[in-house]
Design brief:
The chain is 39% helix and 3% strand. The protein has helices at 3-23, 33-36, 57-67, 69-72, 100-103, 107-117, 128-141; strands spanning 54-56, 150-152. It has a two-stranded antiparallel sheet with strand order 1-2. The longest helix is centred in the first third of the chain and has 21 residues, at 3-23. The chain starts with a helix and ends in a 23-residue tail after the last strand.
Length: 175
């Protein structure tokens, strides 16, 4: 191919690529508010965003045995597949030993995490009542609430976690 023809072909290729890039890749479809709503479920430390519902540790014990113990072991003691949720050192460290009582700053964060990510094989599959009950069970295992306490949108934010002041809040005005 002669040099002028090669330049002409290269110019045509570049113009075609530029035209195709200007139109975008045309992947997927536009996201709607309805698409986002099921995943816009964040819970703030003060409880903002907590849904209606309630649960007790007794209700949570049964659910935990059915849905959580395969990974987290009996009574939250951990297993080779999942972290322990009770026990551990008095204070968690970067080397590990993080449990609910010595690491998590807010009880509402436990609710948010369980609802969003558990059980591992079926995230976001538990009802709000089930998440409140499992959260209550975990808190009771750690002796942070009583066995008969009911967790709901009013009571859960009032649980004082031992490591509440162990974090630097990046956006304190949002709490």
């Amino acid at each position: 191919m002669s040099t002028p023809k090669a330049l002409l072909v290269a110019t045509c290729v570049l113009l075609s690529v530029a035209a195709a890039s200007a139109q975008g890749p045309k992947l997927g479809r536009p996201v709607t508010e309805a698409d986002i709503a099921p995943w816009d479920i964040s819970i703030m430390p003060d409880g903002t965003g907590l849904p209606a519902g309630a649960g007790t540790a007794a209700q949570g014990a049964k659910l935990y045995a059915e849905r959580c113990s395969a990974c987290h072991g009996d009574n939250g003691k951990g297993s080779e597949h999942g972290a322990a949720m009770v026990g551990g050192p008095a204070r968690a460290s970067l080397d590990g030993g993080k449990t609910i009582k010595n690491y998590w700053p807010y009880a509402t964060t436990i609710f948010d995490f369980v609802r969003r990510a558990m059980p591992y094989s079926e995230p976001n599959s538990l009802s709000n009542d089930e998440v409140y009950a499992i959260t209550a069970y975990i808190l009771a295992l750690n002796e942070l609430i009583g066995q008969g306490d009911t967790m709901n949108a009013q009571t859960l934010p009032k649980v004082i976690m031992p490591n509440r002041d162990g974090f630097i809040v990046r956006f304190p005005d949002r709490i």
